[in-house]
Amino acid sequence: MAAKIINLRQARKQKSREAAKARSAENSVKFGRNARQKHADASETTRREAHLDRSRLEMPPEDAS
What we know:
This protein is an all-alpha fold. The chain has helices at about 10-30, 35-55.
């Protein structure tokens, strides 16, 4: 049986890619929200702020005396 010949540079790069992919998966579970979720939250916040601004009651000015 002959030993399988491998290119060490390619093996090192592949190992690095796999480590980065694993780290990425961990971070996406920890911190991740996709762009659609971020956009939905931002638009919901904007909608709520607009609703509050429309519902705001104007207070009469207090006398400065």
